[in-house]
Amino acid sequence: MTTLTVRVMSRETAREDTKAAFVAAMSGQPVDVPFSLTFPDIESLAKTMLAPNRLAIINTMTGAEAISIRELARRVGRDFRAVHRDVTALLKAGVIEHDGQKIIFPYTAYHVEFTVGHIAA
Prior knowledge:
The protein is of the alpha/beta class and 121 residues long. It contains 5 helices and 5 strands; from the N terminus they run βαβααααβββ.
């Protein structure tokens, strides 16, 4: 099972995590780095992945073989142009990938993690 971990964290925190993993790996220590995708804020995550139509696309593609956009549009019951627009945004964000002439979400599951707290005024 290959799981994508989707996180919300600042660019600085993401950079620090990457640096720590790199230092550990270079010193020969085992590094458990999951497949991950990081968003700088919850709003970006929501707009990119959690909008209902895009989430339906991701859910349809999770654990599936590569698929054409036309077939994906048929499976989610939406217009080709609208699905193409959402697929383009998901490709640009690195959520899904090209696989030849088709597209793929190369994971069997995804896990979304973020923390919401009080924002000082």
